[in-house]
TrEMBL record:
Protein name: Acyl-CoA dehydrogenase
Swiss-Prot/TrEMBL keywords: Oxidoreductase
Top-level taxonomy: Bacteria, Bacillati, Bacillota, Bacilli, Bacillales
Occurrences of domain Acyl-CoA dehydrogenase C-terminal (ranges): 231-356
GO MF terms held by the record: acyl-CoA dehydrogenase activity; flavin adenine dinucleotide binding
Gene3D superfamilies found in the cross-reference section: Acyl-CoA dehydrogenase/oxidase, N-terminal domain, Butyryl-CoA Dehydrogenase, subunit A, domain 2, Butyryl-CoA Dehydrogenase, subunit A, domain 3
Domain of life, per lineage: Bacteria
Amino acid sequence: MLNGGWHSMRFFSDDIRDRVREDALAMEKRGDLAPDILEYIYDQGLFKLLVPEQFGGIMTTLPRATEIYEEASYMEGNFGWLIGICSGGGFITKLFPEHVYREKFTNREAVISGSGYPSGTARAVNGGYVVNGEWKFCSGSSFATLFTVNAMIEHGDGKDAEMRTFVFERDQVELVGDWNATGMKATNSQTIQVREAFVPEDRALLFDMSATLYEEPFYTYPFMQFAKVQFAAVALGISRHFLEECKALAETHKQEWDKGEKYSFILEKVHQAEENLEKARNQFYEVVHFSWNAHVNGEYFSEEQLSEISIVCEDAAAESLRAAQSVFPYLGITAVLEDNLVNKTWRDLQTACQHGLILSFR
């Protein structure tokens, strides 16, 4: 069991937390992180949490990365989502040949965006492939330097199509500008398109997320479970922030709400939601720590154990939503106005928790 409760994590200073939250409503209108906040992420190496030191990264552990994702999302949902998604791109770089890694990903501002859905096609040509297609929901597309996507190679000789991961330069990609979601508006999760884009053979990667060219424990942790952990951590962080904003709203309206006992009612609802969320959070971190320790000790995960990791992530995300929904209906008309942090944080949470990897149909 984790100890320390809600505030056991402290990666970020109060100054950067205040700066990010100060910009929260403005970033939503812009649809992007502020330049100084993006610079902070570059300076701290937060997009390179899964990149080995030899390539300019700060390779970390799964528990530490998870704590960072949650704390960043507690500060502000778009900030946390982008750190999670863009650092998670480092999982793909484990398939980069060393010369590609050094040439394309050692720069301080190197960032990967992209999609795992195979919604493109490729044909073999001399020295590589020509790729066409479009891929939705590419978070961080406005500042990404590389895009990795999956596409099917059409052989044309009766053989089955083969999927590979293709790495595009930024100037090969067109941004569609179609990200109009309810929340997470500053993640810039646009559709990207490529037309007749040439990709050399050394950037057409065999799609095998269990393979790696580098001896890093993170690179051999099960990819699907890592992704679920990442998204669940984001949901937990945003939900914590939402409940905090609910308490702040109650304090703002204390004199008015006290007359009808609404003030004490809301605080009790928030308290109960926090207790339930903390239980889910503790269970989540127990499994994250246990699975990581087992992994680094060379243990093999059975299908049942992989399922357990997945379930605890889905449950953490579901409890994050339940916690918010147990309070939101009682907040009044202020909560449905989009110019306040209660509403924005609630919309961000609804949007983040629609990701297919943390939706549960059990």
